[in-house]
Structures are given as C-alpha cells and as structure tokens.
Amino acid sequence: MASHALAPLQTAHEGEWQDDADAGGARFDAGQDVDEAPGVDWSRQLAAIRQHKVTLACAALIVVQLIWKASFISHYFFHQDDFQVLDVARKSGLSWQYLTHVDSGHMFPGVYAIAWVLARAALYNWAVASVVVLVMIAGASVSAWWLLRTLLGDRPAILIPLTLYLCSALPFGMTTWWITAAEALPLQIALFMALSSHVRYVRTGQLRHLARSVGWQFLGLLFDEKSVLIPLVLFAVTACYLTRRRRLLSALAATAVRYRKAWFSYLGLLAVYAVVLVTSMLSSATKTAAPSSGHAVWSFASRLLFDTLLPGLLGGPWHWYHPLNSTGAYADPSAGLVWLAAIVILAIIAASILTRPVAWRAWTILAGWVLLADMLPVVIGRLNIPGYAALFGMETRYVADVPAVLAIAVALAFWPLAGPVPDEPAAGRPKQIFTGRWRTAAIATVAVCVLGSVWSVQRFQTLTTRFTSAVTPVQTYIANARAALAQTPAGTVIVSQPVPGSVMEGLFGHYAASQVVLGPLVPSGAQVGWTVLPSGQIGQLRVFGPDGRLWPAAIYGSTTKSLPFLKSCLTAKRKRLVLQFPAATWAQDLKDTYVLRLGYVTSPGSAGGTVTVTYGSYVRQFTIKSGLSKAYFTVWGAAPDVTLQADLSQGGICFAPAVAGTIGVFPGSPIPATGS
Is the peptide bond before 317 cis (omega within 30 degrees of 0)? Predict the structure, then answer.
C-alpha cells in the first residue's frame, strides 16, 4: 500500500507513522508499503463519542422504543371508528367540505387527508397504516428530544424526562386504534416544536422562530382540537420560567406586554380556526351532550385521576379491564397500588419544591393541561349517559398526551434552563442538581417506571390478544372477506348484515353493514350484488359469517308442512295451492319484517307464466323460470299459510316447503360458499 494512503494518520514526524499499540515500537517510513491498513484511531473515536454521548444515548432510546412499539402495533388492526373514517374518505373527494366536516364533535383535516390517501392506496392495509403511525411516533420522539435540548442544553439530565415520555404505558392503548394515534401524535409533535421555537424566539427576538412556532401550532390544529391550548402552555412557560420576575403576577404582566407580537400571532391563528370550526359544526348534525349529573362528572374525573393517570405516571396501571370485543385500554389497578402511586407522586412533587421553590409552577402547568385538555372535553361531550362515566375514566387514551406534558414539567421542575434568560446576563454552566443520592434516587425512580411500563404493556397485549377462539380477530375477518370476494362468481347476491361487534359496534348504524365495510373489497368489474332484504329470483344468495367467509344463506323461522310431490304442484287443472305452516308465523306486530323463500322446479312448458303469492295481506307475483329456482320476498307480520295461484295452459310448477323468517348462515356448511 502506498504511503500517501496513510497521510491523514501521520504524526508530526513527517514521513513516518507510530503504532502506539505495537509493543516493539516499530516505525514505518513514508516510502514503505504495508500489507494491512492502519488501525483505527480509537482515542479520537472515543473522544467523539464522549462529546456526543448524550445525543447518542437519546438516539438509542428513541430507536429502542420504536422497535418496541412497532412490535406492539403489529398485533392489532383497524376497528370501530377506523372503518367509518375510511369509508367516508373512500366516498369523498379531497374537498374543503370533506376536510372540515365535523364528526362526533371532532374536526381534524389532517387525519381526513391521510385517511383519504390510505382509502385509495392501501385500504385496510395495517402494515402501511402502522408505518404512518410509527413515523409520527418517531417525529414526536425526536421533537421531545429537541425541546428538552433547547430547554436544558445537551446534558445527561434530559435523559430522565425523555425516558419518562418514551416509555410511558399510557399511549400504548391509543396505538391499537389507528384514528386515535393519527389524531394525538401530531398534537405532541406540535406541542414540542411550537414550544421549542417559542423559547428560541424569547431568547433571540428573531421573528423566524415566531413564525415557526405559529406553523407548528397550525399543524397541531389540523389534527387535534386540543392544540388550541398550546398557546396557553407557551404563555405559562414564558411567565413562569423565561422571565426573572420573582412575583408571578409581575411575571405574567411583563410576559403579556413584552411578547405581545407572539400572543397576537397565536390568537390570530386561533381566531381563524374558531371561525372554521364553528361554521363546520353549524353545518353538521353534531350536537354537544351535556353531562347527565354531577355524579357522572365526579365518577369520570375520580376514575381518570386516581385509577388511570396517577398509576400511569409511574409505569402503571399494571392491571387492565378488558370488555368483550374491545382492544381499548381500560386501567384497573388495585386500590393499594393507587394509593402507593399517589404517595410516591406527592413525594416527588414535594422533593422538587424543596429543591427548587419554583417547581410548583411546572406541576400547575401539568395539572392545568389534564383539567382543560383531557377532562373538560369529555365532560362536555360524552357524559350524557351516566352508566359509562366510570368506564370513560378508565380509558388511557384520554390521557395519552399527558406523558408529553409531564416531560416538560419534569424538566422545568428539577433543572434550571440552560439558555440565556431575559433580564439577566447569559447563563454560564448549568447548575447540576441531581448529584450523589439525588441522582441515584432519580435513576432508580425512572428504572421503576420503565419496568412498570414494560410489565403493563405486556399484560395489556396478552389480555387483548388472548381470546382469539371466542372472537374472530378483525384482521382475519377482513382477510377472509377479501379472499372470498375475489373468488365470488358473477351473479352472486350478498345479504348485507351488521359486521361482528369486534369489527364495528351496532351503534355505528349503516356504517356497520357488511356492504359498507366489505363492499370496497369487491374486485373492480365483478358482477356481485348486495341486498338487505332479498327480493326476486336469486340463484346464489350468500351471507358473510362471523369468520369473514361467504356461506350459503339460510332462512331461520317457520317452514310449511311437507306435501306429496304431486300435491305440491300447480298445473293447468290445479290453479291454486295452499302451503300451511304448522302454526301461524310469529310476529310481535305488523311491522316485523321477514324473508319468504319459495323453492320450485318447473317443466319447460310452464316457463314465462306468472304465479301470485299471498302471505297474509302481502300479495306479489313472480315470473316462472325453467328448471330449479328460488324466489325471495320481503313480507310483514304473521300468517297461517302461503297461497299460490297460477293460470297455466301447459306444463306445471312444483314447490318445496316455503320458509318465512330471518337470514343467517347455513348450518353445517363444510366449506366456504365461494365458487359453489
């Protein structure tokens, strides 16, 4: 190897290179060729690693939690609101009306825009949807690191709040539900980045940082209405920690006046958003639902605070409640663990205030966020049914954003800010608070929180994926339906019935019908029909089973008495036939709807004739087809028999026993009905 290849590693002695690791101290002249490349300058590499050790540690944490969360998300699939949002997206154009329509009190154009793309490019493709969520998680993680670095500087202290944020068990339940993750994660990105840009604006006065903060808040408003509270967080952090006024009232007044450009900019953005939101709500059918009682409010708030939030801040809840057909995350810790969590958190808050008297301001910011962002919207919009108040309080998705605010609060409570603060000279070396026993206690507390989170997440995953034998997984249901529809022969008519509750609950109305959920999976150009109540002569009537496969449709109800073959026929001489039920078909009232099925076989000469069918007060006609056929009718109320009349000049038509009832899967079908 030529000597010029070693030039970058030469010492001050021109023309030779000293290998410090060589015991013999061998020297190589500049003109001497060597067989092997020189060794790596490990001292320089280690120095570079030490210089960036905090950044590398943060990056490692982010990568590990991404792998952890990717593995967790892979066990779940779309369900409930996800299908409704994707159905609306598939049927809508990317218009202003679609992006700003309000559903259940929510307006999130960003979520609608992503759903619009997914509905066309990767409908019901959980892998693609998961990538979207993981990109958002990565963005939120990097944003958290960037903000903590902005607040505290590039020091090891930022690893503590960053770890608490990345490893909290509270957001995991949110990621099992695509729409909640797509709504909440951009909010966290917006909060971190808007605050970071605002802090830089306060420190430098440069308007470009102010403009960036406005832009990040705009991003948050596109995804979650909670983003309207971001300016309030920015104001509170500025008044409490970015000014040196000792009295809080004086700091509040000075903050309002000194940074009025920022507040006017933020309020201007909120004003535009408010106009769009109110206009969209007035044009929608969404109505607010006031809480039914004070007891419902207390039941929700106490559950959310004591059973969900406090244990969740320490790695809980450790134990979960799992309703049937649900992958929702419902915290259900024991009373002893709730009290233990409350005591530990109070001790941490007290320790922070004893260490830094201004720490109470950080905890007040956190409490204000929980009250205004997580409790108030639910109290206003969802507590009209008192029986669900406690259950809502157990849902971790309502406080999934708290770890983000907690990371900010912990950073502000325990460490002084690293950058320059107005009203005082530029800060020198940041004061180290966590040293000795304090550092040991902090690391131990974080370790306990991380271990508790790992335990809680694993328990939740085991609980929500255990009952695969009782309820067909949604992913399997969709996969079976996709395969069945790809093989369905032309001319098949499918009865649209509600999908299983694990896919969508009945409260979604027509959105939960199989035609709405599974209809988009029909291959383009396939001649497949859908019906709610079959009517007419249908050769292949199919229905989706609870497993997502297509099966022959069966009628469950009353069947007429069997007749000898010749006595079940209409001919030129026998023009009237009565098929009697053993007892009158049962009906609670005349509005009860049933399906009447008539199976028949004809001779060639009778084809084209007309048969009149009478079921109670229901009278209809159908045209006779040759061969074996089935005719379906929608009928109402009860009847003792079915009367058939035909005026045939030749040939005949013979009927199988008639059946009146509801449609279900044919029992004992050994194979899916596709292709049969």
Answer: yes
Nearest to 453 by CA among 403, 379, 503: 403
Contacts (Cβ under 8 Å, ≥6 apart) of 570: 576, 577, 611, 644, 645, 646, 648, 652, 653, 654, 655
Distance set, CA 13 to CA 9, 23, 28, 34, 233 (Å): 11, 19, 11, 18, 59
Q: Tell which residue, 122, 114, 126, 124, has the closest CA to residue 89.
A: 114
Domains defined along the chain, listed by start: 3-39 (no CATH), 50-464 (no CATH), 474-554 (no CATH), 561-657 (2.60.120.260)
Per-residue confidence (pLDDT) for residue 675, from 0 to 100: 37
Cα–Cα distance measured from residue 514 to residue 394, given in angstroms and rounded to the nearest whole number: 31
Indicate the angle between helix axes 207-223 and 109-121, nearest 10 degrees: 60
Phi, psi of 16 (to 5 degrees): -145, 160
- Tell me the C-alpha distance between 511 and 92, whole Å: 15
Predicted confidence band at 410 (pLDDT cuts at 50, 70, 90)? very high
Dist. CA 580–CA 60, nearest whole Å: 77
Q: Determine the Cα–Cα distance for residues 483 and 55; give it in Å rounded to an integer.
A: 48
Question: Lowest-confidence range among 266-270, 432-436, 513-517?
Answer: 432-436
Dist CA 105 CA 95 (whole Å): 19
Of 480, 464, 463, 467, which Cα lies nearest the Cα of 546? Answer: 480
Amino acid at 34: V
Are 291 and 393 spatial neighbours (Cβ–Cβ below 8 Å)?
no
- Can you give the pLDDT at residue 40? 60
Q: How far apart are CA 633 and CA 612, in angstroms?
A: 12
CA distance 296 to 294: 5
Across 95-118, b (16+ Cβ under 10 Å) vs e yields eeebbbbbbebbbbbbbbbbbbeb
Burial, 517: exposed, middle or buried (Cβ in 10 Å; 0-12, 13-18, 19+)?
buried
pLDDT band at 216 (very low <50, low <70, confident <90, very high): very high
Distance separating alpha carbons of residues 308 and 374, to the nearest angstrom: 12
The amino acid at 663? I
